[in-house]
Records
---
Amino acid sequence: MTVPLLEVKDLHVGLPIGGGQTYPILKGVSFQIMPGEAFGLVGESGSGKSVTSLAAMGLLKKPLRTTAGQILFHGRDLLKLSRREMRKLRGDRIAMIFQEPMTALNPLATVGRQIAEMFYLHQGKSWAEGEKLAVEALANVRVPNPDRRAKNYPHQMSGGLRQRVMIAMALACDPDLLIADEPTTALDVTVQAEVLRLIKELCTERGTAVLFISHDLGVIASTCQRVGVMYSGVLVEENWTEALFTDPRHEYTRGLLGALPRLGSRSTQGRHRLVDIDSIIPDRSILTQTRFISPRGEGASA
Amino acid sequence: MRLGFNLVFGGFLTVVVILAGILAPWLAPFDPVMDANLMNAELPPDGEFWFGTDSQGRDVYSRILYGAQISLTVGIVSQVINSLIGVTLGMTAGYWGGWWDDLVNGMTNVMLAIPSLIFALAVMAVLGPGLVSLLIALGLTNWSWTCRIARSSTLSLKSQGYVLAAQSLGYSDLRIMFTQILPNMMGPILVMATLGMGSAVLSEAALSFLGLGIQPPFPSWGSMLTDAREMIQLAPWVAIFPGLAIFLSVLGFNLLGDGLRDSLDPHMRTRKA
Amino acid sequence: MSAPILEVDDLHVRFPISGRGILGAGKRTLYAVTGVSFSLAKGECLSIVGESGCGKSTTALSIMGLQEPTEGTIRFRGKPITGPGAPSRMARAKAAQMVFQDPYASLNPRQTVNASLAQPLKLHGIAGSEATDRIAAMLRSVGLTAEQGRRYPHEFSGGQRQRIGIARALILEPEIVVLDEPVSALDVSIRAQIINLLQDLQEQFGLSYVMISHDLSVVEHMSDRVLVMFFSQIVEQGGWGEIFENPQHPYTRRLIDAIPDPDAALGRARKATEKVHPVPPPGWRFSSDGSVAPDVFSPPEASELVDIGPDHKVRLLRA
């Protein structure tokens, strides 16, 4: 059995509320990501999926803090690293793409320069070399006319192109893990489909593992091999994608899938009512009491 | 409302100025105008004359208390006029747009280009000195910032769903402006008015100092400074106390304005009991 | 079928964009809606789908009278509601109301729920106990309690706010409700509740919906008829079954294939592009599939909406 690339072990994150008390945000989240694997965390707002990804990047905003647990990356606990060591790791071994590429890019620098900076900072290349590599990186994310586009500022690009630039920056140093937090939520559907395909292809090609965060079950299903469903700070169910969608075990997952209007279901089932989670599970507090974590069988990962 | 330091301290200073103005007839040991006695001229502060006396022998402490009435009147009235002009122009310009918006924008830019004190001076020159002309002059001078804020708030509120909904529910334009837009921009307008009170008090002092505001012998903090000019070395208290009064009241208004800005958030409001 | 309740006839909306040069040099025209026509039957849900900038929201605002059409007429029960002789805002209010996308921006933060429901009633001459009763009944219809009516918007969750927005849209008992991305800002479980509520209310009050959406799963679930818009024009229109089971225009197919649907992703549902390849009628060819961003500042290429079946039209170019 291979060693996991990222292993989150019993992670607790809390919000101090005075008097030595903390309000729990994450209540013991554990999961593993194997090298080259795409793992998805899906959940509604407030489920803790984004907090999990920020904790893994060491980017938790104060006053949130990790109260217990480990985040092992290549066997090293990220929570024990100094800020300097963490900074060296970020962008180089672990990279991240965000929901809104406009805010994540510097509006005052050309995108070529911003990608070049990654090579300059993490690989010690000269600026001239960096800019040459930046054009290559843009070509890799299938930006048309990469040498001309490298001279563009972020505001001269469409949302889809900016997200490609973000991906080019994130993958510039060939990281082992890419964290994608709702990377396509702000995009139109057809652009979203292209960007998702791009992330999937590039990561498969380079063997980059992906931690995919999304509220959209369809996005997760189309990109990930394994999925974790989060609810209220707890990973309530984890399984291989196919199994999770065909045979959901946890009541919440079942409710979530039933609440989703599915393409084509009207042709087969006629006009029907969507599942209202609140009416089938009136007391939501019981949801976090059961967890279904299916083991990683050898054969199941096809 | 959250109680920050600015709000509490600014509010405290403002309340002190207001009380001083209202209670002046009872608090002042002497009449600010009639109790002139050249025998007592230019006495330093002591047990009888707390802030000393001026060149005519009038009690500086009493004159400052009465001066607060002038400063408050000027501050409040001029800001009410400013806000009315600014909000009316800004809100209608932002809501209706078109040529009216261009015209209002043009006027705002012209007003911003003219130093406000110069404009007030020109108005005073036409109207002649005195309290009423001072109020009109300051009321006409400082509406441009309020107007800009009202216009930009209206522009952003105009596209909010609830304004569109009000239009589709059949509300008239004026009703929408008064029930949907105005209440939602009162916060920044109130802040501007409070901050404006500080600058109005300063302008009053400056105009009176130049001899165009409140005419002697009536006490205003600005005219008191004018009188103190010639003897600032012999009797510095005659200048220090009105100066301090201006400083503390302007500081009070500004802190109150900042405090209001921080705490006027509709999301802090809860159900009416 | 009875006479349509709403008819949109050759609607055009163009926006003049002032140029950067002095004296208006470089002034351009943005083509937002070009020649859109459709009709809505009583009790029907018609959806307009497309991506950002395709003109679907401008079309909705025109129906609401919030955007003056450059050309074309919109008729409610046979009477024009645009142009000269259009009814007043008050009179229109009972024809159509709107539910907005963002539940956080669609309610006045300084008004209680009751106040925002009572004001329009009062404006239309309903006050006192009749108004109180109607508000209480409306709150109940959307799943809120009378007690919640005394609260301010910030005390509610996104889903509850959307219920309040729906109550406000229905309080004057309009016949048409324009739903502008009514659930796209909501979480999956809340989304299902609001979709169910909208369908219940449609049945209960006999409402006709015009839904604006980019989410084709929701559109398939709710609609009777669908218009697909691309770059200011309708590229395909028809009954939901025609559009989802037998999409003809390349752009429609692209849009359906792009939906991140779990079944499609796991290969359990056939992609639109894998179905029989559509062939244009003789003498015609399909226009572009929308993969190239159009120039919104020049009028779209001359093309026509051609009938290719009962209640199914596709935009085609002459070959």
Note: Chain C has a mean pLDDT of 88.
---
Amino acid sequence: MTDIQHHISDDLLDNYRAGSLPHAFSVVVAAHLSLCDECRARHEARDMIGGALLEGTEVAPLGTDARARIMAALDTPAPAPAPRGSGVFPAPVMAELGGRPPRWRMLGGGIRQQILSADRSGSLRLLYIPPGKAVPEHGHRGLELTLVLQGSFADSEGAFRRGDVETAHDDINHQPIAGPGEPCICLAATDAPLRFHAMLPSLLQPIFRI
Amino acid sequence: METVIAPVRDTAHTLETPLPPPGQQGVAKAPMTLEAPVTKELSDLSRDLIAVRDRRDREAFGRLFDHFAPRLKSMMLRGGLTDGSAEDVVQDVMLAVWHKAAQFDPHRADAAGWIYGIARNRRIDLARRKPLSQPEEMPDLPSLDPDAGQLLALQQEAHHLAAALARLAPEQAEALRAAYFDDIPHSRISEMTGLPLGTIKSRIRLGLDRLRHELRSIAP
């Protein structure tokens, strides 16, 4: 059904499920699960294990009013539904965008970005790269996850299309180049500021927040 | 994908880690036809959940509460909550079950797995500053056109999963319980047990491999 080639690792999936990923990474995982049937099935299979263990677990008696409490609560209004995906942006990305289209900032060379979140645990941003353009070469400290939402890019690790996730550890020094056709839009999460080797002097990093 | 536990649909459960490219293989689809009404393939609990979903059936919900609430409370107590907090979280989880029932798809999960997923998210959000980012809800309700083969396969899978879990080597069972019931990060399991992280990861991996092997043997 889907031709996604680059998936999230078991480690990332399990850490996402345990709630132990930094926010930026958890959004990338949730967005990939929104696009990838295969990983959604892996995720659901783990819930089936949890369900089987829940069935077999010991029971803890409830307070005497518990049943009355829940039955009385059923008439409370349902909470507002989660935001839906829109365009190329799946629901978890729309949630980060506050339900609005991106407000891009120009980075030069036709490249645009919007920071979605940034704190000490890492940063999350959308990148817009015109066809054939290179994202400035950079190395990483720590881990970077990049999910393609539109178009494609390629680097030394392979070709990445919509739904594909590149998992780059700090030993990868890559130069992604956007594929032909549509501009490449991707969701990128890091747990450290990127170190650019060209185009942008590193002093500018705090200004551009990349 | 070579291995899909419920092999009728390519989006059914899988414990298989996707291969790196170019690892695409054809999915074996086993055609099945059943004469019986599809609801016969479902467990009583899943049927009750469908009654809640389709008819807002309060009696059915009451039965789900009676069954799951004491188990959910136990799950929350295992997670370190006090008795009172655990009861409050159980209320939240079961109310979410009532409100989110429209999303229950018996082709993709049984009642226990689906409710467990809601409880897992609720427990995680209690410990996080920001709620955990959630995947897009599944857009359609395939139950409008129920696939008896898929429902049966999923039900069998759930049944055999419990048996297969019971047959695991104790150290694998404990590792899977910590990882997929208590949702403890692997690194934390390692700290708690004093065992190297690699040992924990390999126990989880071997446990999943074992489950996959056992469930493959029941595939139609």
Note: The helical segments of chain B are 44-55, 58-78, 83-100, 111-127, 148-166, 170-180, 186-193, 197-216.
